[in-house]
Specification:
Strand order of the largest sheet: 1-2-3-5-4
Shape: globular
Structural class: alpha+beta
Strand content: 15-25%
Order of helices and strands: EEEHEEHHHHHHHHH
CATH architecture of the largest domain: Orthogonal Bundle
Number of domains: 3
CATH topology of the largest domain: Helicase, Ruva Protein, domain 3
Helix content: 40-55%
Radius of gyration: 17 Å
Largest sheet: 5 strands, mixed, barrel
Number of strands: 5
CATH superfamily of the largest domain: Ubiquitin-associated (UBA) domain
Length: 210
Amino acid sequence: MIGRISGILIEKKAPHLLVDVQGVGYELLVSLTTFFDLPENDEQVTLHTHLVVREDIQQLYGFREASERELFRMLIKISGVGPKMALTILSGMNTKDFFESVQTNDIEKLVKLPGVGRKTAERLAIEMKDCLPAISLMDANKVDSGEKEIFHQKLGAQEEAESALIALGYKPQEATRMIAIASKNINIANNENKVSEKLIRLALKSKVKS
């Protein structure tokens, strides 16, 4: 899995990018939110990435912020929302506005996104509410460097825990919801070890009780 790339931005033509990493050119698709935040060509750029593998294609997606990638990963787990629609959603609304729309059940605002009908908007509002990180995406853009480190640590632990549950046979959407619930019951301090293990145990424990 390619989680991040850092290199020279060679070419950009929305939504496509070409980044040179030590002589290897990586083609990426990005949201307009990320695209408008890019440096000029021939300058250094670092992107968080997500690789989508299918039978006919392998596509790498790039994100300037880890929170945007996390939202992308949540969106593609929703029934009827593929990578293309997820990227469209992220192009039409930043993570802060999307978080607020889901939290307030603002269907009308979600329907305004390109390609999102009322049924899809209602599904997003219902299914995403329980899957949002315990540390809100909105607050992630306001905290200091120390708190951001904890935020990213928690996101990484959540992803690792979700992958473990999926490997055990849980569906991606179910695994995301279980970890989101478990995250509300755990406090993360800097450099705390085995966070993902604690999340997995809490998630499995709550599942048994339910």
